[in-house]
Amino acid sequence: GHNSIWGRVYDPSRISASLNAEGGGLGAKTGLYMVEDGIRRLTPTECERLQGFKDGWTEGCSDTQRYRMLGNAVTTNVIEDIGALF
To answer: Is the pTM of this model over 0.85?
Structure first.
């Protein structure tokens, strides 16, 4: 489907799926990850770090809004690297 895990982009070391601001259902925004104790989703703080923002950058909003903002954001270090080319 449109929002299936098969459409997500992984980094070369396969650490994290790309963040996604769309979709519904369990784990749709950040994906679900297998850990030793079971399955969990990324926290808003972990999403902030993946996007290159400081911890707490989206504080003051609901988790739903935080996930939306972070899923719609452009990764800051990528933009800085692209800008350095020009």
So the answer is: no
